[in-house]
């Protein structure tokens, strides 16, 4: 890899992954996709990481999607490989065994919006803008956008945004449920880290199982979803962390969870 396209900082149980191609609005080329995939794989098996924050370098862009300068040089088969790689990566992010927060520091278009859709929680700077703009290039969202957006904001609004390729600003995004909250640009990372710290206070096995139950349960009927929840709950019962939580409540102290 010829450039440091992804910055990784791990501290206090939180991994901050920063897309680092500001000269091209943090757009995705193959190098960045592979770097992010490697980081996600490593984090999956790193017990010292409990929460992930994904953001972009600078204040201009979170991620503007695919690097179109690279795209125009690709053959049809290479484009298929790119789409397969980015779709698989975003599914891995969605299914990561730890919560992922998108700290949206600027424009997020196309694949950039699809990235934040794959995250669990989305926090946007007040100057951010989002949109699945692919139809304006005579293509469609190919990294999960046609599936995740309607599940998040509803079928009708998702169709409107995808069919028109229209961008939405941060205030509209929070109104339609595309993002969880808005904060001022200078406060974005502090806000994301504050939420990450709150998650880190909870039992990591419980958080992992809660994420699994929500994601898996939403794809099925209520009866099956309740069974998924029940099985996820059973996993927490024999853990040391559950007993620690009860002991801490009894002793009126903060629990110290170890993920065991």
Q: Keyphrases for this structure?
A:
Lyase 2-enoyl-coa Hydratase, Chain  A, domain 2; single chain; 2-enoyl-CoA Hydratase, Chain A, domain 1; alpha/beta; 260 residues; 11 helices; 2 domains; four-stranded mixed β-sheet
Summary of the model, kept short:
By secondary structure, the chain is of the alpha/beta class.
Describe this structure in words.
The structure is a single chain. Helix 3 (76-94) runs parallel beside helix 4, helix 5 crosses helix 6 (155-164) and helix 9 runs antiparallel to helix 10. Helices cover 48% and strands 16% of the residues. It has helices at 30-44, 68-71, 76-94, 111-118, 145-153, 155-164, 170-175, 188-200, 204-217, 222-236, 240-251; strands at residues 6-11, 14-19, 51-56, 61-63, 100-104, 107-109, 121-125, 129-131, 168-169, 181-183. The protein is α/β, with parallel strands linked by helices and 260 residues long. Strand 1 and strand 2 (14-19) form a beta hairpin. It folds into two domains: 6-200, 2-enoyl-CoA Hydratase, Chain A, domain 1 (Alpha-Beta Complex), CATH 3.90.226; 204-251, Lyase 2-enoyl-coa Hydratase, Chain  A, domain 2 (Orthogonal Bundle), CATH 1.10.12. A six-stranded mixed sheet has the order 1-2-3-5-7-10, with helices on both faces. A four-stranded mixed sheet has the order 4-6-8-9.
